[in-house]
Specification:
The chain is mainly alpha-helical and 314 residues long. It contains 15 helices and two strands. It has two domains: 86 residues, no CATH class; 226 residues, Orthogonal Bundle (MetI-like fold), CATH 1.10.3720.10. The relative contact order is 0.14.
């Protein structure tokens, strides 16, 4: 197990290195460079040259990368001139709000997706299976923002049952207004429900025909024990893997939902930074999201090894 963890951690560090190099190189893809994009098209060549020297963009790329990594190691994600504050302070303001949405939406989707996926596998090819399959296909096919707009039209505009957007911007204000959480969480959970239920159904169906299931039944184990003790644990391997591998999808889905509901999270702040060409905020948020994805994949590998010991010795 220790050797398995060491290999995965070294792989994660290597991927992190390439991600940071690629992320910093994205800054130079702005038309005319990051400084011209920040100052606007009317900036004079003298002003562009001055700020390039001021921020070190005239130095070789490896020098810029070394300085940037040194700043990151000291917790400095940069400074947003557009917002006149550090990226770290902006991140500390918006990240908890996104975590509330992502955590609640993921929990709700798992609570519905996993049991219903098991039910579909056990009652496969029945009317209930076909109905839930149709709902899953709708979840796959419906764009997140479109479903969110439908929820707003039905429950905010027509019946005025839920607020369109939260009235507060802070973490405490959001938690004190639970009605404003309902629609964003439903929209986010519906995005993931189809994923978990379909994979759980497929995984359970694959395990139902395995030799260890027939052996457990031959030993006199009840169907309930066979399903929830033997099949269920092995079927969870695919879900644990997806939780790590689909982390970019979770973040992307949060961006669309936050923009539609004006949710004061990282996705909405990223959208505003893109509109304002705030390269410092874009760079910092992109780095945090990619590092979180790498850590998610690492945790998925560890969870995979815990659930299936064969992975450790392969």
């Amino acid at each position: 197990m220790i050797g398995f963890l060491i290999r995965r951690i070294l792989q994660a560090l290597l991927v992190t290195f390439f991600v940071t190099v690629f992320t910093l190189s994205l800054v130079h893809l702005f038309p005319g460079g990051p400084v011209r994009a920040m100052l606007g098209p009317r900036a004079t060549p003298a002003a562009v040259a001055y700020f390039n020297k001021q921020y070190g963009f005239n130095a070789p790329f490896y020098v810029q990368y070394a300085k940037w990594i040194w700043q990151l190691l000291h917790g400095n994600l940069g400074y947003s001139i557009k917002l006149n504050q550090t990226v770290a302070s902006e991140l500390s303001t918006h990240l908890p709000n996104t975590l509330v949405l992502v955590t609640l939406g993921t929990i709700v989707s798992l609570l519905f997706g996993i049991p219903l996926g098991v039910y579909q596998a056990v009652r496969r090819y029945t009317a209930g299976d076909y109905v839930l399959t149709g709902i899953s296909f709708l979840g796959y096919a419906t764009p997140t923002f479109f479903f969110a707009l439908l929820l707003i039209d039905w429950f905010c505009v027509d019946v005025h049952f839920f607020p369109v957007e939260p009235s507060g911007n802070t973490f405490g204000a959001l938690l004190s207004e639970p009605r404003a959480l309902v629609l964003p969480v439903i929209a986010y959970a519906f995005l993931l429900y189809a994923l978990w239920s379909r994979y759980m159904r497929s995984s359970v169906m694959d395990n139902l025909v395995q030799d260890y299931v027939r052996t457990a039944r031959a030993k006199g184990a009840s169907e309930r024990r066979v399903l929830w003790v033997h099949i269920f644990r092995n079927s969870l391997i695919s879900i644990v893997t997806l939780l790590g591998l689909e982390l970019p999808l979770l973040v992307a889905g949060a961006i669309f939902i936050e923009v539609v509901f004006n949710w004061p999270g990282m996705g909405y702040a990223f959208y505003q930074a893109a509109e304002n060409v705030d390269y410092a905020t874009l760079l910092g948020f992109t780095l945090v999201a990619t590092v979180a994805t790498i850590l998610g994949n690492l945790l998925a590998d560890v969870g995979y090894a815990v659930l299936d010991p064969r992975v450790r010795y392969s």
